[in-house]
Amino acid sequence: MTDEFIEGVVTENRGAVFDVIVDGRVVQCTLRGRLKKGKQRDASPIAAGDRVELTMLEASRGIVERVLARECDLSRAAAGSVPLRQTIAANVEQAVIVFAAAEPRADLFLLDRFLVVATTGGLELVICVNKCDLVEREALREQFGLYRDIGYCVLFTSAVTGEGLDDLRGALKDRRSVICGPSGVGKSSLLNALAPGLALRTAEVGPVTHKGRHTTRWARLVPLPFGGSVADTPGLRQLGFCEVSPEQVAAAFPDLLPHLGRCRFNDCSHRTEPGCALQEAASAGEIDQRRLRSFLQMGGR
After folding, report:
1. Which residues of 22-58 are buried (b: 16+ CB within 10 A; e: fewer)?
2. Which of 33, 38, 254, 261 to pair with 152, CA 20 to 30 A apart?
3. For residue 1, what are the CA distances in angstroms to 6, 8, 61, 65, 296?
């Protein structure tokens, strides 16, 4: 870092303006012109969690001069006809992927996509099933037990009753995390229950569509009173991949890995070929049929 630049951490990207924490105070920043060229590849070249160097204009305003190298991130393909990378959060250690037990109903194919994106970004994983007060325990085990059997950390929580909040607090304590998932699953409600002083906005699920409503517009990095920080992110109904290889897809399917490479044909598509190890394992009940469909839908091989 040069003498005239000051280092800070981006806490919120609001489009053209970025909140940056510098020595404990919030500085509102814009981008130096040359950084805007990064939008040719990225929907935004700066995300919550980025470490940046800036020039101060006055006590509470500055210009971001440079984005420092990221350790890891959570990114997806931005919506639109031109393929652009959208970084949701940068320099986090783990992704807490939140889905609801009900209202809205969990889309496990979308959950698998979150696992691929987070694994590709080099993040540790926690699956958090919220709104457990709405569903019988046996139904929860039937729907999400597979992920725990595979080896993922799965937490069952309720922001209403307080169930599982101690486990979630323990998972977040002293870690740099991003909390992500679809709209309406209760991400902000969970954080408010853990740290009421955050006062994050929340909303109910729509009574007609039964889909979540967006209340978090921008990813926002917030400190936790029990140690660590978390990036609260907008709900995502779609999760497009950005430069994800078949090998990276496979890495998010540890239940399928023992059977990969054991097919009769090297170029097996794992659909109709004879001697397909994956199809044989699925028929024998050794792997889950739906997980195999998910794997194939995402281009795994």
Report:
1. beeeebebbbeeebeeeeeebbbbbbbbbbbbbebee
2. 261
3. 8, 11, 19, 11, 46
Cα 186 to Cα 96: distance, rounded to the nearest angstrom: 12
Question: Pick the residue with more confidence: 14 or 73?
Answer: 73
The topology under which CATH files domain 6-69 is OB fold (Dihydrolipoamide Acetyltransferase, E2P) (2.40.50)
Domain 246-297: which topology?
Ribonucleotide Reductase Protein R1; domain 1 (1.10.40)
Q: Which of 20, 112, 108, 86 is nearest to 233 (CA)?
A: 86
Burial category of 148 from C-beta neighbours within 10 Å (exposed 0-12, middle 13-18, buried 19 and up): middle
User: Stretch 225-247: mean pLDDT, rounded?
Assistant: 90
In this structure, CATH architecture of domain 76-80+87-232: 3-Layer(aba) Sandwich (3.40)
Task: With CA atoms as reference, report the closest residue to 158 among 131, 176, 179, 178.
Answer: 131
26: confidence class by pLDDT, cuts 50, 70, 90: very high
Average the pLDDT over 113-136 and give the result: 96
CA distances from 97 to 6, 60, 115, 175 (A): 33, 34, 8, 15
pTM, 2 dp:
0.89
Given a cut of 80, whether residue 108 has pLDDT beyond it is: yes
Query: Residue 208's pLDDT band (boundaries 50, 70, 90)?
Result: very low
Rounded to whole angstroms, the Cα distance separating 137 from 116 reads 27
- pLDDT tens string 30-50: 998 777 665 556 777 899 999
Q: Which amino acid is at 147?
A: Y
Q: Please give the pLDDT value at position 41.
A: 66
b/e map 257-274, b = 16+ CB within 10 Å: eebbeebeeeebebeeee
Contact 118, 202 (CB under 8 A): no
